[in-house]
Amino acid sequence: MEPRPTEPAARRRPGRLPLSPAAAVLLAISFGLCGGYLDLGVILFKKLWLNPEGSFRCARDFPWTVPVSQMVLLAIPGGLVAAVNRLRPKSLSLNVASWLFATLAIWSALLRLPIYGACSLLLAAGLARPIGNMVVARGPYSRPLRSILAASLGLLIVLAALSSGRRSVEEARAVAALPSAPRGARNLVLIVWDTVRASYTSLHDYPRDTTPNLAGWARKGVRYDRALAPAPWTFPSHCSFFTGQWPFRLNAQWKPTLDTSHPTLAEYLSSRGYQTAGFVANTECCQYETGLDRGFIHYEDYPLTPRSLLGRTIAGEWLLENVLSFGDEYDKKWIRIQSRGAREINGAFLDWLGRRRPDRPFFAFLNDFDAHAPYIPPAGYQGRFGLRPRTPQDYRVLVDFVKMDKNRITRRDVWLARDSYHDCLAFLDDQLGRLLGELQNRGLLGDTDVIITSDHGEEFGEHLYFGHAYNTNLDAIGVPLVILSPRAPAGRVVSSPVSLRDLPATVVDLLGLSAGSPFPGRSLAAYWETAPGQLPEITSPALTEQAEAAAFQPPPRQGREHPGFQMSLVASGHHYIRHGMGLEQLYDLRADPSERVNLMASAQGGRRVVPFRKMLLEVLTANPGSVEVERAYLEPYRKWLEALVQSPPEPIATSAAR
Hints:
CATH topology of the largest domain: Alkaline Phosphatase, subunit A
Helix content: 40-55%
Largest sheet: 8 strands, mixed
Structural class: alpha/beta
Number of strands: 17
Number of domains: 3
């Protein structure tokens, strides 16, 4: 009988090879590093082909933090395998460990793709088989594998230097290259409370004392009772805050990046010698990829801490949310968006203040996200006003409130969301008091102008809408506005409607930098610098535009006609809203501040609306939009409105006519 040919060594199936505890940990970390690079490839793939806005949707430091996070994650099962083999030697062989670590490394990267978790796990397990066999065949300490590991570590150092390292160097160079600042230049702090509705604050005599600190500080400065956001959602409003341009001029409703030629407030102040810094909690609409960081020498959006480092990956985010933060719903809110609350935002700002050059004036922008959905306040603030979330179902309501079917939502659910929103306002207000108190203790407040406002409001069933971005009623666009400055007379209250589009013009006026200012609009200081009985200098009209993508999609509530895009104008004690489809609303804010009675339903509505149509037409004629916006909807809308203005007004219905 002929002997069976011997199989070549390269094809021979290796047996069970032992694995020492140290080798298990090293092998896991190596696979984690390689899985991190695979994850980087997935991130790049999604940016180029899957993300419609063409962004990474990751922290700026992701080229090195994602591989490090994957290494940390794989070190956990590596440590478990090492512990098992130490207690029971040879329990888990090199064959099993290599396949396991390769599967986990590949799966962790595939979780970022829109694939079911079970399907991606099966795919990862299949791809891991030949990789594991290769490691076993060559040995974990073979020269090729050691070379790959060394090259991977070297690449990691290079990526860290090119991202975070280069950013630190550029920041230091930018500070050193700042021109001389004007003598006696004052500092500026702009605080934007994301999603804070004016009528729910103590500034407006709300029955619940949600913001006593804000009300107290307002008595030391100027309070605007009718401040209107340029848009009912975050990104276009912030674009106007920084450029003084209307959202339709920037196309900020549809284009998620501020990449126009219009200069920003931070850029202008930097050119005047200011050291600029931004501290952002809204990592969905204000992070670096939106372009809102233009001009800021220092800009913090995604925090870099050991916990946030772990959250740079999908698997790490799951671990943080379901294991390390189990039961802490407030902590989970920030894990989901890789962000932090007002307490941490203030801490980051104060830390930066300690490191900045004290011989430079500074401009600091703080964006707080605590009042934004999900409305989950931190421990100690839950239940301050009304209902308190107690059961897992209560927290599920708060987490899912925005996307819940509002036709099936219960009255208690709405009350719970609203009461928790008020609790979040109380926390924001408490942090405001602590921040301003700390600035005062440091001796900085006397040399610093402070502006406190919001980018839009929030609705809880008023006008049959929930949340924001859907309409332009006052609950969605009316925001608080307080200015603290030596030039601002203490206790002054401005009741005239004003647009936050005028913020840049106001800032440069307060700082004495109006000469050569590139910002349109007029300073809101005109309202307190005018002698009693005299009309103030005309500022920008209180115009708001709703033209976000949601305006062209099905309405948030079934059975309700969708308004399409809207233009809103507050003037002469009235609020006029004209929808893209021709529907109109007119409210008398003096008699009906809650906007319950649409005057267009009255017999005289046709005549009363005429001057407001003319005002809106004049504003849109004097302020054309971008080429894309004009072509998409603004030019035909303006022509339609012009034809309506030129037509004779509708006759007043009388009893004889009826």
